[in-house]
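Support case: 2-oxoglutaric acid complex. Customer-provided input:
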Amino acid sequence: MIVSSAKSDIIDGVASTVTYDWTSIHKTLDTYGNAVLPALLSADTCRSLAALYAAEAGFRSRVVMARHGFGMGEYKYWAYPLPPAVQALRTALYPRLAPLANQWARRLGEEVRYPDRHADFLAMCHEAGQARPTPLLLRYGPGDYNCLHQDLYGERVFPLQVAVLLSEPERDFTGGEFVITEQRPRQQSRAEVVPLRQGDAVVFAVHHRPVSGSRGSYRVTSRHGVSRVRSGQRHTLGIIFHDAL
Ligand SMILES: O=C(O)CCC(=O)C(=O)O
Ligand SMILES: [Fe+2]
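Agent response - structure generated as follows:
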């Protein structure tokens, strides 16, 4: 059941990465540091993926956030091979974002260049000893939240990541907003709450991004998290493009 619905949605998911207006998404990412991809996954795929949380098999580890001071709630990292829908999304989204990642690197004066294909970027991660998969499934219940953080897992970092909301706000849960803060040099932080519906994804800066100033680009530091879930259950799919040590 899950396999067949995931399969039809792989096609959905990959097709929809083609139909987004990536020029406009890049512009939004340049201006605000985050952008929404509406309806990246169908409600069926969201339900199938969220249901996988209960499974033992398919994951490499489970993290109870309170044990590490990360917040409340928990998440699980998938093992390789990733579920087909997750693998397909990670592979399809990367080449859409790599050109912007390269522009950001150039503007920040960084030497790193991101290859066109995700497989080639993963090879760079693996050479640096980062070989463990990072896509994850998160689960929050009443009172749970995710502290502001950055998903860094070694020296190799792809500067953009994606989170897909698998639950429907107001129906499945209340509260639990996706929050991003940006800290500009010598200025106070700016916060954004990203409005998402079930199946929507947010693309956002992992750790920093360039912002144009009067004397060229400067670097802002970004962090993301989730505000307290007030009621119900909230699931998210996290797609991080670098692998972990
Ligand atoms: O649950 C969320 O919306 C945030 C998930 C997250 O931190 C991530 O995908 O890296
Ligand atoms: Fe995260």
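Helices lie at 2-19, 22-32, 43-51, 65-68, 84-107, 118-127.

Case will auto-close in a few days if no follow-up is received.
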